[in-house]
Structure prediction request, 363 residues.
Amino acid sequence: MLTLNEDQRLLMESARGAIAAEAPISQYRALREPQGEGFSRAFWKRCGEMGWSGMLVAEAQGGSGFGIVGAGLVAREMARNLALSPFLSTAVLAATALAEGSPGQQRQWLPRIASAQAIVALAHDEPPGGEAVSARREGGAFRLSGDKHFVLDGPVADAFLVSARIDDMATLFLVEAGAPGVSRQTRILLDGRRVASLRLQSVEVAETAQLPGGVRALERTLDVGRAVIAASLSGVAEEALRRTLDYLKQRRQFGRAIGSFQALQHRAGLAHIAVENAWSASLQALQGLDNGANSAAFDVAVAKSKASRTAEDVTAECLQMHGGVGMTDAFDIGLYLKRARVEGTLFGDAGFHADRVATMLGY
Prediction:
């Protein structure tokens, strides 16, 4: 059922209050500036204290094991204030991947992730025309070479989970950021988020650095990330619409609030319906992953496609309803549009996932 239980509702309410107090839009505006790391270490530490960084970490490893729905709810609330943190890269993607790791990998990293004392970034996307990362076995070790880009929180990561190919089979390797042959270049995205372009030049890693889950672990990691991003996009769209409705009630033309104009009411109504549909699809995907549903991958593709398109369309519509001032940096609404554009493309845009849906349906 597409409903939240009592624990999930309490989590959502507590996260909304804490994030609004400790990671307001004003903090985001300061963190997006070119200087600095692009996120608040104090807020990341607070994520550990609140138990958010350990939501996908088992209790035996120091986490809460609250589940993927819980992670989606926290991401949705963070999106309302555009909060910047390594939550997605580390608490969601890395924690999911390492849950499939060896006992040694889990002992080394999961307690540190749960307490927000480590940042681990997934390095999966590869630049067009770049060298795909391959792993070559040498005795009891591997050598990794190739390029990755759009590595979320890559500039500040303590370690990377690098996808690489061994004889055309994809797998993940745990690579320390300071390993010889690893270099990274910081890039700033449209929404102020930091990513890294990563180069691996004959990087030697032990055989134990390979995660045992292989393709299955990588695909599950990506799908969990996509579902949580869909929840985040739903939060972006919902908050942008809420702020726009407030603006429509306050802005006056011809002696009355512009929200009384029927044309704007229709546009706002359609946006509201789209946001609700996107959140329903996102919650379906989150619940399916938590429950191990056979349809989970399909639900994720639907949710990511729907949420990406909705967030992009709704934030653009909200900016239009603000008029020309919405284009200025003095108004927050443009910041939501930028976040929607970035997250809409992460791990596959609306078109990519619509194609996935069509393929799964046999078209």
In short: The radius of gyration is 21 Å.
